[in-house]
Amino acid sequence: MKTVFLTGAAGFIGYKTAEILIQKGYNVIGVDNLNNYYDVRLKEYRLKNLEKNKNFKFYQVDIENFGALKVIFEDNKIDGVINLAARAGVRYSLIDPFVYVRTNTTGTLNLLELMKDKKVKKFVLASTSSLYAGQPMPFKEDLPVNTPISPYAASKKGAEAVAYSYHYLYGIDVTVLRYFTVYGPIGRPDMSIFRFIKWIDEGKPIEIFGDGTQSRDFTYIDDIAKGTVKALETETGYEIINLGGNKPYELNYVIELIEEYIGKKAEKIYKPFHKADLKATWADIEKAKRILDWEPQIPLEEGLKKTVDWHIENREWLKNIILP
């Protein structure tokens, strides 16, 4: 495999995945629509770094646009596809559910249809731990996730189902990765860790939905990107695989660590817990160990320190980043 078609290339996970692919000698065709769901300056920062590499080619295209995708597939010899383009975020999916289905489900269908036509045989799909709502922990991939509680989760479930049908009908090798709360430098400003670091550093009150006892299986970005590349390089047939830290931490503990690393105490504002959010997440990663030879390497304390250090090094221009 030489050339990888990577959607969401200017996104948080897409950027780090592209970096690793380039380091390993792949040619990367990156696609991103650079939408303004969050401050586009972060996406431009990531993209500027990627475009320094001669084996990275970028197209500003939306995966909802079948015709534009078709032109790219016809102009390039593509060996594998990693679909990281997605409308993310549980809460915003309640405001505009239509765009979530168009991007996450129909966009996935567009890619698979072109893969079928061009006989591209490897597909990696980013999915989500949000599908496990209401299931017993730790979350295993064979749990019956048939009752998604947000349009976001439902749109990802639709993408998984479409991918299975193309595996069954056309023999496309599909690896679905269910990610668990990814964090790290150059992250998403709609997610708690980015927001908490910025607010605490700037002396602004932080907003906590609930009492802070909710827990997440936080997973460092480098670990997630390495697992994504391993999925590309592994023939699986059709498999759903969790990528998570394998240890849930309470949000209150995360806040305490950020306070310690920045050297400031947080002023806290508590808001009602959102019914579409999960109280806790915890990944069973035995399948990832067995099939991908993958497990996380960066513990939360180290990963948060790296994230805070990056923020401090870049705080002058990050002050201007607008939080969604």
UniProtKB/TrEMBL annotation:
PANTHER family: EPIMERASE-RELATED. Residues 6-307 form the NAD(P)-binding domain. It comes from Desulfurobacterium thermolithotrophum (strain DSM 11699 / BSA). It comes from the Bacteria. The keyword Isomerase applies. This is UDP-glucuronate 5'-epimerase. GO terms for molecular function: isomerase activity. Its EC number is 5.1.3.12. Gene3D superfamilies: NAD(P)-binding Rossmann-like Domain, UDP-galactose 4-epimerase, domain 1. It is an enzyme of class 5 (isomerase). Keywords: Isomerase, NAD. InterPro entries: NAD(P)-bd_dom, NAD(P)-bd_dom_sf.
